[in-house]
Amino acid sequence: MTERKIFCNFAVEKQNAGKKIRMKVKKFGGTSVGSAERIRNVGKLIAGCRKDIVVLSAMSGTTNSLLEISGAVEKGDRKRASELIETLQAKYSDTIAGLYQTEKYKAKATKTIDGIFNELRALTDKDFSVALEKEIVAKGEIMSTNLMNLHLHELGINSVLIPALEIVRIDMHGEPDEAFISKEAKKALDAMADADLYITQGFICRNEKGEIDNLQRGGSDYTASLLGALLGADEIEIWTDIDGMHNNDPRFVEGTTPVHNLHFEEAAELAYFGAKILHPTCILPAREHNVPVRLLNTMDPSAEGTLIENRLEKNAIKAVAAKDNITAIKIKSGRMLLAYGFLKKVFEIFEKYETSIDMITTSEVGVSLTIDNEKNLPRIEAELSQLGTVTIDRDMVIVCVVGDLEWTNKGFEAAALEALRNVPVRMISYGGSNYNISFLIRKEDKVKALRLLSYHLF
Ligand code: ADP
Ligand code: ASP
Ligand code: MG
Fold it and tell me: What residues have a C-beta under 5 A from ligand 3, the ion?
């Protein structure tokens, strides 16, 4: 199969004892494993990939369904929870019927999936808690990986399932515990040294209390990047339903085109500022360990995709992204004038309430900043009011233009500003990095702004 030759590590051979075994981490998203046919398609792509680690999301729609089930439990509506479970289980029965060739594997898969649904039913009999919700939601990735592993076995491939709940952990701040992941993942691979292919769940993990937790929505990308970075993979591949990172959000702008090369910093900015193709922080581990990330399309495996690495294409604007649900906070104070220590007091309040700041601009009389998490806003507002007059603007969007925006380059920031000449802009942030200029605008202007930027910049 020529296709496989393109995408697998045929150079990857078990080398002399003690030497590094070369491998890739390949992550397949929800749509890529969204039906029996798609699972078979991924099976073909990975069947010959010796020693690679395959990270899977839940089948598309499953995480949302599990959250709905958990929502019904929260409302005390057991009947609804049970109906939703029935519907979801029927989808999995259909997938099993379409996926396996032999009665033997149909029976094996049915037994496994029925067992997981029984556990799910038992969970919905419990009292609601956030921990329970996370346990319910974790079933999606557990099901998809079991289906894939059995499919590979039916094809005669010696794959093994490595439970993510044993190798991925977050700390008390919700950050990945890299020392733990590195140690436990290596241990798990060593224990299964004879296997040809390793399958694990994206997204799910344990927390510092040992409870089941997750890396937030879209977190399978993060799992892949963490494993690739910490295990020293040759490359991290993120396989999805589009041919790489496009130069604007294809959900809102027509005629977007793939960007073939991105610097780690450019990709990190795009992911953080809303390019849904990547989890917001998933580039960080890869960047830190200098492992290239390649974005590829499961529906069109020969498309070039996007290669993200430590290489910058000079003098180019690469892409635009938008981050929703932003709140702008302005603190105006007569005392800021010449008062050192004012910003420190402002930042301390945000630190105290564990709320991160995305954009910031200052003037002599005040400071404006943005947050994307309003959980502690009432308390933050109350404390900021001690420092000056506070004004809050909700329903804002950050539009971020990414590329080689090193400050001595001329004209790029002017071009972006010119494109937005007819859009009211609340804040501008430029110079914080060499890679981006960000604009804060109203939610209702977002699509217009994205289209104008594409029209004028690309
Ligand atoms: P997966 O389930 O494989 O993780 P996602 O839905 O999370 O896939 O991400 C892929 C989707 O991201 C695409 O279908 C596309 O609609 C959306 N997307 C948003 N911005 C971009 C962009 N700049 N480039 C490519 N895709 C984007
Ligand atoms: N299944 C999870 C979600 O839908 C994680 C992922 O797909 O990356 O958010
Ligand atoms: Mg995703």
Answer: 29, 218
The minimum-distance atom of ligand 1 relative to the CA of 239 is: 3
220 lines ligand 2 (CB under 6 A): yes
Query: Which residues have any ligand 1 atom within 6 Å of their CB?
Result: 29-32, 57, 218, 240-242, 245-246, 249-251, 275-277, 319, 321
Give the list of residues 6+ apart from residue 414 with CB closer than 8 angstroms, or none.
Answer: none
Ligand 2 within 6 A of CB of 276: no
Q: Round to whole Å and give the CA distance between 248 and 319.
A: 6
Using CA positions, which residue lies closest to atom 5 of ligand 2? 218
225 lines ligand 2 (CB under 6 A): no
Measured at the CA of 264, the angle between CA 38 and CA 177, to 5 degrees, comes to 75
pTM of the model: 0.93
pLDDT on residue 336? 62
Provide the total of helices (H) and of strands (E) in the chain, helices listed first: 16, 16
Q: How far is CA 383 from CA 188, 208, 361, in A?
A: 48, 31, 20
β partners of residue 295: 238, 306
d(CA 240, CA 244): 8
20 has pLDDT over 70: no
d(CA 61, CA 80): 17
- For 30-81, write each residue's pLDDT tens digit: 999 999 999 999 999 999 888 999 999 999 999 999 999 999 999 999 999 9
Q: Amino acid letter at 55? A: V
Instruction: Please work out whether the CB of residue 202 comes within 6 Å of at least one atom of ligand 2.
Output: yes
Q: Is the dihedral of CA 331, 334, 340, 345 positive or negative?
A: negative
Sign of the alpha-carbon torsion through 405, 410, 413, 419? negative
Nearest CA to ligand 1 atom 1: 29
Distance CA 108, CA 96 (A): 10
CA 280 to chain centre: 6
**Neighbouring residues of 429: CB distance < 8 A, sequence distance ≥ 6:** 359, 360, 361, 437, 438, 440
pLDDT tens for residues 226-275? 999 999 999 999 999 999 999 999 999 999 999 999 999 999 999 999 99
Taking the C-alpha atoms of residue 326 and residue 369, their distance in angstroms, rounded to an integer, is 10
Ligand nearest to the CA of 276: 1
The model's pLDDT over 83-128, given as tens digits with 9 standing for 90+, comes to 999 999 999 999 999 999 999 999 999 999 999 999 999 999 999 9
Distances (CA, A) of 369 to 99, 331, 392, 405, 444: 51, 9, 10, 22, 20
